[in-house]
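User: Can you help me understand a structure? I only have the sequence.
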Amino acid sequence: MRSELIKKQQSDPGSHGLPKDYPTPPVDKDLLFYIQRNQNHDTIVYKLNRTLDGLINKDLPMHAYWIKYTEGGISRELNQMQSKLAFGYESREINLDLYAFQFVSYKELTFYIVRKEDDTYQVIFNLNGRRVKLNHIYVYAMEFGVFPDVKFIEFYGEEPDTGVSAYEKINLS
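Assistant: Let's start by predicting it. Here is the structure, written out as tokens:
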């Protein structure tokens, strides 16, 4: 029994959380957060979506796209199904400096795009009763055809005022 568990951990290293060898997207002042999954290193990036005059796009405040590390790090847009069923989001403007959004695939949490004093933005949400800046998300899922079976989601962030790390794992199975 123990040897079966060890084999599973070796064949599926992401089953216990984000593997340490996953790449990090390039630093960018408009990078809000990113999502990684256990299937491969490809990463979904969420950047602030600015209009030509540099303001936040009120209708679509974030641009979500892939960094395809399995294809040499090229960028690709999400396809229609990925946007509508998995990695897309629905948002609403609260005021010029604050937008609320929820993922289409997980509406239990509300996130906020917040403008900081230096005119940059960050994503804030409530994590175990703490106000947390979201850095990245890890999703562990078993692939079953078109619709994967998500087992758990991990949220990584930090308290914006103190920089203290914050983490939460939500089991879905």
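Now, to help you interpret it: The chain is about 10% helix and 50% strand. Residues 31-171 form one domain. Let me know which part you'd like to focus on.
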